[in-house]
Amino acid sequence: MPQPRGTFFVSHSSKDKTLVAHFGQLLRNLSLNQIGPWFSSDGDHAGGLQPGDMWFEKIREKMNSSSAVIAVITRSSISSRWVFFESEFGAAIADKKLILVTHGIGSMTDIPEPLSRWQAFRIDKPDGLREFCGKLLAVYDILFDNVLFNTHSKTFFDSTATSKLIELANVTQKPDSDVSKTLMDHFDRRFFELISQLKVTSTYINYTIAIFSDFDATTHLVEIAEGDSVQDVLNEIWVCVATHVEAYTYLDKWVLIHENTKLNLIIREIAHLVPANYIFIPGSRWIARELTRPYKPSDSDPLIIESRKKPTD
Fold first, then answer.
1. Domain 6-160 - what CATH class?
2. Contact 139, 68 (CB under 8 A)
3. How far is CA 121 from the centre of its chain?
4. Contacts of residue 104, Cβ cutoff 8 Å, sequence gap at least 6
């Protein structure tokens, strides 16, 4: 049996305790119980804050003894000052890894400063959850196992979806409540998806763009949703070419090229701030191409750009 390697601290809103419980169980399963979460609302008899605990001292103690601090950013926690305090406190402790994960947040632009400066992973999407799990397990020198992930991530997604439906069914709210808004957002999204199939043009309707992979000569359709950033789309495109290039190698091992203009998409640090529909307009086609060498600023010289547009023999 693998030996325990420690805990990780989870900063969250108490309204998200069910989500965090499922999230923690997923990570226990992936690590074969070598690591586990500590979060204040944990209902387990041995977890969370206990009667008589000095809450601030207990949280500080658990942060100090954890190798990583995970901040779970949702629609509930995004307005929680305590989550922001815990995150900043965790980031200030030496040798601590602060990792942001989001659930139900469409874009980093929805997250206020200073948390928006940290890299975040969308755990409500399979590729984002996979990337996060790999990064966290690496902090504890635990190998990521694809078979375990495929099995337990399905359970996680099924559990969180079921929990949300139960929550919506059991809570009676006013028409303008958060729960009602969630339901309306769901109905609106389904309506927009239906209308998009009828080819009705609207700036508020999700659409797809075509990505041609030079790696294997295949074409992929990537959806652009309201609230997506360029970084969100790049993450989706990377999933399409992940068998050929590793993560975090954009502009180093591969690049995205607009098919008509032959312009390279050169956005790195601010990609999460740029709305996707500003760049990936409806009907546009892009090429994911391998780089023979890492991109250099001089590659954007106007003369070089113009030479790429000319046909070659």
1. alpha beta
2. yes
3. 3
4. 74, 75, 124
Q: What is the mean pLDDT of residues 44-62?
A: 57
Task: Compute the CA torsion angle 263, 268, 274, 277 (nearest 10 deg).
Answer: 40
Class for the domain spanning 206-309: alpha beta
Is 289's pLDDT higher than 90? yes
pTM above 0.70, yes or no: no
**How do beta strands 285-290 and 254-258 pair?**
antiparallel
